[in-house]
């Protein structure tokens, strides 16, 4: 699944355009590698780290969502590993 689509389906961003901007901003990492494109594929087990809403988010993808569902459904697709702030 495309990175921008995952961010939007998992409700980490409000719009897909914002998800594309976050991915293309050059501040996102997948498993420690810097990513600067929205179309890179992600899979379960990948760890994403990126700045969002004035904090650094670190998440592990647990499952790929098939649609943009409810918030509880979206939260089941990833584990939040972010440091406590």
Q: What structural class results from the helix and strand content?
A: alpha+beta
Order of helices and strands: HHEEEEHE
Any idea what the shape is? globular
Mean pLDDT figure: 93
- Between the first and last Cα atoms, what is the distance in angstroms? 30 Å
What value does the Rg take, in angstroms? Answer: 11 Å
Strand content: 25-35%
What is the spatial order of strands in the main beta sheet? 2-1-3-4-5
Largest sheet: 5 strands, antiparallel
Count of alpha/pi helices: 3
Taking pLDDT < 50 over at least 5 consecutive residues as the criterion, the unreliable ranges are: none
> What's the β-strand tally?
5
- Helix content range: 10-25%
Summarize, please.
With 85 residues, the chain is an alpha+beta fold. It contains three helices and five strands.
Helices and strands, with pairings:
Layout: H1 3-9, H2 16-24, E1 28-30, E2 33-35, E3 47-52, E4 55-61, H3 71-75, E5 78-80
Antiparallel strand pairs: 1-2, 1-3, 3-4, 4-5
């Amino acid at each position: 699944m495309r990175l921008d689509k995952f961010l939007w389906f998992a409700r980490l961003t409000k719009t897909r355009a914002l998800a594309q901007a976050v991915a293309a901003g050059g501040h996102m990492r997948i498993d420690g590698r810097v990513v600067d494109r929205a179309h890179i594929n992600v899979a379960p087990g990948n760890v994403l780290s990126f700045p969002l809403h004035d904090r650094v988010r670190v998440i592990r993808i647990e499952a790929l969502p098939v649609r943009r569902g409810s918030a509880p459904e979206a939260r089941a697709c990833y584990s939040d590993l972010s440091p406590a702030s």
